[in-house]
Amino acid sequence: MRRKVGSLVKAPVVLGIESSCDETGAGLVRGGRLLGHALASSMDEHARFGGVVPEIAARAHVQALTPVVRQALAEAGLGMRDIGAVAVTTGPGLSGALQVGLAGAKALAYALGVPLYGVHHLAGHVAADTLVHGPLPEPCMVLIVSGGHTSLLLVRDLARDPVLHLGDTLDDAAGECFDKAARLFGLPYPGGPAIDRAARGGDPRAVPFPRPLTGPCDDPNAFSFSGLKTAAARWAERYRARGEELPLGDGAASLQEAVADVLTRKAVAACREHGAGTLVVVGGVAANSRVRALAEKRCGAAGITLRVPPLGLCTDNGAMIAAVGDLLVRSGAEPAPLDVSVDPSAPLEYAALHPVARTGTRAA
Ligand code: KG4
Ligand code: ZN
Question: Can you give the pTM of this predicted structure?
């Protein structure tokens, strides 16, 4: 039986803050409805290093946090006093970056006298979809594909029930594979969108890249992308050794096809295995045009409903954290204590993530 979340009439406006990587996000959600959100990114500052530099990201969050909160409030036509609860990403992510968002969230919650909720970043990606497509059916299969994660999750009531983690990547995440391969191909950071663009004119069957962990004896829910990255490196080296220009379109399209094939094949098989009638694909790589198209085709053929959030809610943002906070508030979840800490490598067990602060003092 579907449990009801609390009355929408009494639901407070929840401010969500996201700062786990290079995006500073603030969002406002009330009763499952997105009222406004704003985003600042330090992506350009990391581009010349080919990846996110944690110290640069943390400093950028310090600069961006107050402006994005103000901008989200302005977009929603609300003021500080309208905020009834604050939700913030407490992990996983870059430690320094998480600390900035958490410090800001604690200050706001304390000053406004409202409850604070720590949120698991990946639960945020899942909840992002509810802002456009409504409550999740129970159970549903979720494929999270981002720069740091590639996971298959069986989700029931996101605010109350534990998330069943079916499988993860054993090495690189799908987005990481795109980012690293793009660098090898001489494309800019972040690599995912660059590969997506380069693939437009290419032949997806031109290069026979491997489909890792898709054999009959392999774990059906596990992923592995580092071998694919190495195969992309060898492919590029062969052309460079001969002094020839890379057929970039073909390489990008073939790599994208291999990633999309593995992701969607495993996600649809997991739906069948667990009797889930809905697949939700979230995270930055859900923005990939081939992943979206192949997921649509394969879900359609298998009679599975596919839900993918719009592009702006696929990548990191504050609205998704506010969405989790809103679900937690309406389910009557316990708020976090004000000495809650961050957990940079927290596995996803529950949507609420309230790690206890370590003081460094030890009993004699
Ligand atoms: O979810 P996200 O914004 O941040 C993390 O939590 O990691 O995901 C970022 C990842 C990056 O690896 C980026 O290259 C990838 O998502 N990405 C894409 C596309 N847009 C973003 N990958 C493939 N195709 C895209 N269109
Ligand atoms: Zn993310």
Answer: 0.89
